[in-house]
């Protein structure tokens, strides 16, 4: 799964590289570049908190990545304070699905790759729909109850059970 997101690095749009990076921006991070419109990637959603774009290698007919607009590390680095953010990523994912006429939210997979199985450290929620139409390889990449993929619900539960602050 490492090469899936790394290939996005190939699409740098040089005309937009002069924008001013702000706080929460990691200049080596491909997803920071995408949410700052420095790439040719189309943003399906963009606000101060959350951005969304299509996965370059869709694992299902609909495959979106929902990310915090400011750089946040992978799910292993999160604490209880990030629970509202994770919930917001899921809510935005649901809105995007509805805009794209996916109404059966029971046939959707929402989840995160568990480090070291994510090539991009910028926290990103994978939204795949319909889950029942995922091919063999995607079923493996986004496999439930595996040590490399954790659903959004499982992550929220895990973070909620962590102490207030480390
Ligand atoms: Zn980033
Ligand atoms: Zn991933």
Number of helices: 5
Rg value: 15 Å
Number of domains: 1
Mean pLDDT: 88
CATH superfamily: HIT-like
Short description:
By secondary structure, the protein is of the alpha+beta class. The chain has five helices and six strands; from the N terminus they run ααβββαββαβα. The structure holds zinc ion (2 copies).
Explain the overall architecture:
- By secondary structure, the protein is of the alpha+beta class.
- The protein has helices spanning 2-6, 30-35, 83-99, 136-141, 152-160, and strands at 43-46, 50-54, 62-68, 109-113, 125-129, 149-151.
- It has a six-stranded antiparallel sheet.
- A hairpin with a 3-residue loop joins strand 1 and strand 2.
- The longest helix has 17 residues, at 83-99.
- It binds zinc ion (2 copies).
């Amino acid at each position: 799964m490492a090469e899936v997101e790394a290939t996005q690095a190939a699409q740098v749009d040089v005309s937009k590289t002069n924008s001013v990076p702000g706080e929460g921006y990691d200049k080596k991070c491909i997803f920071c570049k995408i949410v700052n419109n420095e790439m040719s990637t189309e943003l399906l959603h963009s606000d101060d908190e959350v951005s969304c774009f299509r996965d370059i290698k869709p694992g299902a007919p609909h495959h979106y990545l929902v990310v915090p607009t400011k750089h946040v590390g992978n799910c292993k680095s999160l604490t209880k304070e990030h629970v509202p953010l994770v919930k917001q990523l899921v809510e935005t994912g649901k809105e995007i699905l509805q805009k794209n006429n996916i109404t059966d939210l029971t046939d959707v997979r929402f989840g995160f790759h568990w480090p070291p199985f994510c090539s991009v450290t910028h926290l990103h929620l994978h939204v795949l729909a319909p889950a029942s139409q995922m091919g063999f390889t995607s079923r493996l990449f986004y496999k439930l109850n595996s040590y490399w993929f954790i659903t959004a619900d499982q992550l929220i539960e895990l973070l909620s059970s962590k102490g207030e602050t480390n």
